[in-house]
Design goal:
This protein has about 230 residues and is α/β, with parallel strands linked by helices. It has 8 helices and 10 strands. The strands form 2 sheets. It has a 6-stranded mixed β-sheet with strand order 6-7-8-3-9-10, with helices on both faces. Strands 2-1-4-5 form a 4-stranded antiparallel β-sheet, covered by helices on one side. A hairpin with a 2-residue loop joins strand 9 (about 215-220) and strand 10. Helix 4 (about 120-135) packs across helix 5 and helix 5 runs parallel beside helix 6 (about 180-195).
Length: about 230
């Protein structure tokens, strides 16, 4: 049996805007195996951000089932969802979302403050290892304003990995970077996947999406095949 780290079954997410129903997701089925590198691709308004929010437990479906690393998240309360977000999913965002007053090391250590049973020494050692892993050994004591865009994103990736999550969820992670730096960050994601990390890469950039091992195309809240998508 395939070990699916993400299972989405007939998920629908509807919003009521005045008298109009917005079908952000309209019957989505998706399985992502452990160790996959999957791009979720689609134009603005296609539903890819809503799908990302389902995977990241940032939103709940109107109907359908969402399972993350073997746990059905639909009926979880906010405290339970927070545990899944902190331990099962590592988030990398387009705008980095670093804490401006903390240096790189402190930013990476921050998620561990919410994980019980980890000493300060262990937090520091784990954060140092990951910053070295992403090529920032000499920038650990620098605050975000002293880092380039690519360096900030590397800090964000290290932070996302610090709790050893089952899924690394990247939302347009190269969108705020120049082409050369974006290519370097994409290469880092590819290296992490080669090490066995499960990565979901949300993007509207076909060039980047096609560098992932698998592609999921979404349009009008539905997953479509490539031939339909390319006509958009």
């Amino acid at each position: 049996m395939t070990d699916n780290v993400i299972e989405i079954l007939d998920v629908r997410r509807y919003y009521l805007v005045g008298d109009f129903v917005v079908r952000a997701l309209d019957g989505v089925n998706l399985n992502i195996p452990r160790g996959a590198f999957t791009a979720i691709m689609g134009p603005s308004g296609s539903g890819k951000s809503t799908l990302m929010n389902m995977i990241g437990c940032l939103d709940s479906p109107t109907s359908g089932l969402v399972s993350i690393d073997g746990e059905v998240t639909n009926a979880m309360d906010e405290a339970e969802l927070a545990v899944v977000r902190n331990h099962k999913v590592g988030f990398v965002f387009q705008q980095f979302n670093l804490l401006s007053k903390l240096n790189a090391l402190e930013n990476v250590m921050t998620p561990l403050l919410y994980s019980g049973g980890i000493t300060g020494k262990e937090r520091k050692e784990r954060a140092e290892y990951l910053l070295e892993r992403v090529g920032l050994k000499d920038r650990m004591k620098h605050v975000p304003s002293e880092l380039s865009g690519g360096q900030k994103q590397r800090v964000a990736i290290a932070r996302a990995l610090v709790n050893n999550p089952s899924i690394l969820l990247a939302d347009e992670p190269t969108g705020a970077l120049d082409t050369k730096t974006g290519d370097q960050i994409m290469s880092l994601f590819m290296d992490l996947n080669e090490e066995g990390r499960t990565i979901v890469f949300v993007t509207h950039d076909r060039g980047l999406g096609l560098r992932c091992r698998n592609q999921v195309y979404i349009r009008d809240g539905k997953i479509v095949d490539y031939d339909v998508f390319r006509e958009y």
